[in-house]
């Protein structure tokens, strides 16, 4: 795609390459790492000084079903190209090298309809055990339950439903069930076994998978509920499919949560997918509402990115200050004991942070840190002058990865040094000393840390 005067850069020539599907769904799970070299030059130079040429070699980038476009928004100014365009003397060359291709295949799940046990799902015929499901959350809090299709939820009694099961089938599909049935404990001999802490709708779908080899995911929110249950019951194929689904659905709204889930469930492949996405979009992500709900561990990893579309260090500092002072009433914190469903960031508007309540949602109201016991909730004030205690603990460590030496000295003096809450954090004075010393000595300074060197942008001009 060639843009002359693109709306985002009206005075520049923009050039993008886009990957298209030849058949519907053919890009599902496919990723290609490409390197683009773009160049515009004069095809009829009369002398050396008229040998016009401009180009860029872009940093390698992964293209996938969700991210099919890559290019340069500001390849050259239109004014510099106009003389050659008018005389038909401009030539455009695009060199694309596919460095690597990957396919994220479906996990080894047999195709639906091939299982000989499908007719025995929740059937009393030959059943030798009954499973009674008791959720750990209150039944009347419907909104706090991971989503499931209406036809599934409506087909289930919410009063601790009982399912028919067959020990041999369940043992073959789930190591947890096998251990339960063969442990020699009381549950091994009971005809009715109570399973606590799982949503009945989610359990129904996992149980159906054990008999039919079929699982359908409908959203990232849905995939999280399935993932948590599949991990608990050690149904590996469903666990991997839920994680694979999340990798294909990463967006600005959910990347921070998916990254937290990747850490929680120790999935390096999903963690790496989030890292690559953040490296490409960090400049936009730190201004997105989802940023305010990111976990400290994830932010720390994001700030260690060396290469990508990176904002300035001042922008990163402002973003982490907004994060540290933000008070969500509801927030999702992945841990081993959490059964909380994922948050929907589409309900949170960045305008609410700035005092605009036009898109305000009561489910994500914010309160003043100075009066935590107050029953009133102020939707217009989502930040405070001081840091939130549970975020303050990780803030000092996160600040170690902001490159203060690359900030303007005036910004350091007026924005960082004048904030008593920041200056009271351990290690901050040492960071400022390093920054001021770097500005005073410059490149001749010995022993400078990684903070003294700029991050690498993803495109290079030549």
Automatic annotation (TrEMBL):
Lineage: Eukaryota, Fungi, Fungi incertae sedis, Mucoromycota, Mucoromycotina
CDD domains noted in UniProt: BTB_POZ_ZBTB_KLHL-like
SUPFAM superfamilies: POZ domain
Domain BTB positions: 150-219
Transmembrane regions: none
Residues of the signal peptide: none
The organism's place on the tree of life at top rank: Eukaryota
Protein name: BTB domain-containing protein
């Amino acid at each position: 795609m060639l843009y002359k005067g693109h709306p985002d850069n009206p005075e520049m020539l923009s050039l993008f390459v886009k990957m298209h599907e030849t058949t519907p769904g053919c890009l599902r799970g496919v990723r290609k790492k490409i390197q683009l070299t773009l160049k515009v030059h004069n095809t009829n130079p009369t002398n050396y000084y008229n040998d016009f040429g401009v180009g860029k070699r872009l940093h390698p980038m992964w293209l996938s079903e969700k991210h099919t476009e890559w290019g340069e928004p500001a390849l050259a100014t239109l004014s510099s190209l106009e003389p050659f365009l008018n005389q038909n003397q401009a030539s455009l060359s695009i060199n694309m090298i596919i460095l690597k291709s990957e396919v994220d295949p479906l996990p080894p799940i047999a195709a639906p309809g091939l299982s000989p046990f499908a007719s025995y799902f929740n059937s009393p015929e030959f059943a030798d055990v009954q499973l009674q499901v008791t959720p750990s959350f209150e039944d009347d809090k419907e909104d706090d339950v991971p989503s499931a299709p209406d036809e599934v939820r409506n087909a289930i009694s919410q009063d601790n439903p009982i399912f028919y099961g067959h020990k041999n089938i369940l043992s073959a599909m789930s190591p947890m069930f096998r251990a339960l049935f063969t442990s020699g404990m009381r549950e091994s001999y009971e005809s009715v076994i109570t399973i606590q802490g799982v949503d009945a709708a989610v359990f129904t779908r996992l149980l159906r998978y054990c008999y039919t080899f079929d699982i359908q995911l409908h959203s990232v929110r849905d995939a999280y509920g399935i993932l948590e249950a599949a991990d608990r019951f050690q149904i590996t194929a469903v666990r991997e499919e839920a994680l694979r689904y999340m990798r294909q659905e990463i967006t600005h709204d959910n990347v921070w949560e998916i990254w937290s889930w990747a850490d929680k469930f120790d999935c390096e492949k999903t963690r790496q997918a989030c890292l690559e996405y953040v490296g490409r979009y960090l400049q936009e992500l730190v201004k997105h509402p989802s940023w305010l709900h990111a976990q400290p561990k994830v932010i720390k990893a994001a700030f260690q990115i060396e290469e990508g579309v990176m904002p300035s260090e001042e922008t990163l500092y402002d973003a982490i200050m907004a994060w540290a002072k933000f008070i969500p009433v509801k927030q999702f914190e992945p841990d081993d004991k959490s059964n909380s469903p994922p948050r929907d960031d589409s309900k949170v508007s960045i305008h609410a942070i700035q005092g605009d309540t036009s898109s305000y949602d009561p489910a994500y109201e914010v309160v003043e840190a100075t009066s935590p016991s107050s029953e009133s909730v102020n939707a217009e004030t989502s930040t405070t002058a001081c840091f939130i205690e549970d975020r303050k603990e990780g803030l000092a460590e996160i600040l170690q990865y902001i490159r203060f030496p690359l900030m303007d000295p005036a910004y350091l003096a007026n924005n960082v040094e004048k904030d008593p809450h920041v200056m009271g954090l351990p290690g901050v004075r040492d960071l400022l000393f390093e920054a001021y010393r770097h500005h005073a000595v410059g490149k001749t300074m010995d022993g400078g840390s990684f903070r003294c060197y700029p991050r690498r942008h993803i495109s290079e001009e030549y």
